[in-house]
Amino acid sequence: MADTDEVDDDVWFEYDENGNVVGIEIWNAGENVIRKSLLEIERYTKGLEEEIKT
Predict the structure, then answer these.
(1) Residue 52 has pLDDT above 80, yes or no
(2) CB atoms within 10 A of CB 19
(3) What pTM value is reported for the model?
């Protein structure tokens, strides 16, 4: 793991050296935590789509 991004108090995304998501850590998973996780996944995948277009 090369980097960690704290998305919310209870959600962390872990990235490898190439910026790929290699882990998601969720504590106290409630509706708000899951919603924020899904938004982060959407942001990440939109970045991949833009990368593929170029």
Answers:
(1) no
(2) 13
(3) 0.54
